[in-house]
Structure formats: structure tokens, C-alpha cells
Amino acid sequence: NKIISDEGTNIYSSCSIQGEKLLREEIANFVNTMRGGHTNAQQVVVGAGVQYLLGILIGIIKDDYNTVAVEKPGFNKAEFIFEDHMFSINHMHVTDHGFPVEELRKSDAELIYISPSHQYPLGTIMPVNKRMELLDWAHRNNGLIIEDDYDSMIRYGGMPIPCLQGLDKNDCVVYLGSFSKMLLPSLRISFMVLPERLLPKYNLIKARHTQSTSKIDQLVLASFMREGHMSKHLRKIKRIYKKKNTLLVNSFKNAFDGKLEVISSDSGLHIVCEAITEKTEEKLKEDAKNLNILLNIISSKNGKIIFSLNYSGIIMDEIHSFTTLLGKALFQ
């Protein structure tokens, strides 16, 4: 009601193609203060989802780049966008030791899509020294890093590591962020921070696109952030999810001692587990689906499976019963 009744918001006019200036200013401030970024509103592009924003980015860079390196396992829906635009895909295999920068150096890729602050689905966090190696690779090769800052704000041990965009001194990082995890999945507001060298090309092509996010939603979010509610909300959900995370991990340890190990749980809204089971991957997926459990199976070999599990929708009072259901899916 506040936004609708405010004559200064001009809600009956069309949306800004790039995103409402009020929201872009708040996003720039958010990235700078909460993620250690270095940006301004002119570099911010707002849109409904990362895939939509990647489509815009590809329109900017397609004449200069045609091969992209992506993490394996990684965010498949980003990879699909590059495939649809006929990019060559180089898979970089992420292991317990993290991202293989040396493998990237040996490849012919000059573009990389990566989630250094909370790798999906393994949940690993790239240390600062490896981030600097990645930035050095981009600088030496005239490369471009697309940093998906997935789930970076929800971390339970210590402060979040500054984003690559803030560490970058050579204007070679595109930063992607979303409010889906912080607020609501149904609030389709994501954003992209372009390096300054890409702005002239973006300004040439931006009129090809229409704004995909509601103007009212953008203005409400801008007001929410400007009045300090976002930082309060983040503190609140961190407390809630940390408690839920601890209860879930302890429940798994008590119920599955020796059969299941939680191997990553210190950030984000999913945990990564390794389990010993006699079931095939297909049987596991079928049994989990029948019990309304969404398991993302990362690998399955020699009776061991590694899977990620999103716990944001699990009610705290139902963690024990959920653990029982998961046990049925995995072991019975």
C-alpha cells in the first residue's frame, strides 16, 4: 500500500529495462557492504532468474567468447543456457580438493561459470588463495569469470569470504545474485553486476529485452532493503536455519551411525551426505520420490552414494519423522 500510494514511485508507468533505479542502488549497496563488492547502480541489471540474465550476458559477449568452463558437478540450468547458444562446454571436475585451477589453465576456455562461495551441489567454499589464482588466470588470458554467488549469505561458521567481484582489480568478473533463497522462491528477482568494460555493449543491446520482473515487486523490495529490514531478516533466518541444520545433522548421526556421514553442512540450505547402501541409484530415486523426498544424487559407486538434500522446507518439529523416512528410502 505504501508503494502504491506514493506518487513518486510512478507505478503506472512502464518498467525500466535495466531494473528500477531505486532497487539497483540498494542492490549495489547490499553487494558492497554484505559481500565485499565494488560496484554501483549503473552496473546492476535486474531480471527474473539467473537463466534470463545469462541470456542477456551472452548477447553481450558472444562475439568474443565461444567456449565456457563449468563445474562438474554443477548448476545444470546455467550450462543448458550456454548449450542453447551453441557454446562449447568444458567440464572442470570439482573434487574434495576443490576447483582444479590448473586444469582450467590447460583448457581452451576463456570464460568460466563458477560458484566459489558455496559450490552447488558439493557445498565447498573456495579459499582466498585459489580465488586469487582464478582472477590471475582471467587477467592473463583476457578471460571472464561469471560468479554465481549462490547461497553465500547463509553461512554458519564465521563471516562469508568476500566475493570475487570485490577482489577483482582488472574488471573481469560478472557477479550473479538472487533473492530467492533469502526471501521467497516465488519472488523472481535476480540481479547481475556487469564489469564496467561490458557496459557500452550492454547499453547498445539492452533495448532488445523487456523487463521480466514486476515494477511493484522491485519497488517494494527496494523499500524493504532501504529501511533496514533485509539485514534484520538475514540475521533471523540464519538463527532459524542454523538451529534446523544442527538438529538435522544430529538426528542423522544418531539414526544412521556408521551408515551415513554428513560431509558438508556449514553453509547454505542444503547438506551433503555420503551413505552406504545396497540400493541402485534408480531404486533410490524411485523410493525417495514415493516418500516425497527430493534427493539430488551426486555420485553412486561401489555401494556408496553421495547426495545433497535441501532442508529449507523441513519443519523443525518433524525432523525426527523425516529422518525415519529418509532411512526407509536409503536402507530398506
Write the layout of secondary structure elements.
Layout: H1 2-5, H2 21-34, E1 44-47, H3 50-61, E2 67-72, H4 76-84, E3 88-93, H5 101-106, E4 111-114, H6 128-140, E5 144-148, H7 164-167, E6 173-178, E7 190-193, H8 199-205, H9 215-226, H10 229-255, E8 260-264, E9 270-276, H11 281-290, E10 296-301, E11 304-310, H12 319-331
Parallel strand pairs: 2-3, 2-4, 4-5, 5-6
Antiparallel strand pairs: 1-7, 6-7, 8-9, 9-11, 10-11
Keyword list:
Aspartate Aminotransferase, domain 1; 7-stranded mixed beta sheet; Aspartate Aminotransferase, domain 2; alpha/beta; 4-stranded antiparallel beta sheet; 39% helix; 12 helices; 332 residues; 11 strands
Give a short synopsis of this structure.
The protein is α/β, with parallel strands linked by helices and 332 residues long. It is built from 12 helices and 11 strands.
Q: How would you explain this protein's 3D organization?
A:
The protein has 332 residues and is α/β, with parallel strands linked by helices. The chain has two domains: 2-227, 3-Layer(aba) Sandwich (Aspartate Aminotransferase, domain 2); 231-331, Aspartate Aminotransferase, domain 1 (Alpha-Beta Complex), CATH 3.90.1150.10. It has twelve helices and eleven strands. It has helices at residues 2-5, 21-34, 50-61, 76-84, 101-106, 128-140, 164-167, 199-205, 215-226, 229-255, 281-290, 319-331; strands at residues 44-47, 67-72, 88-93, 111-114, 144-148, 173-178, 190-193, 260-264, 270-276, 296-301, 304-310. It has a seven-stranded mixed β-sheet with strand order 1-7-6-5-4-2-3, sandwiched between helices. Strands 8-9-11-10 form a four-stranded antiparallel β-sheet, covered by helices on one side. α6 links the parallel β4 (111-114) and β5.
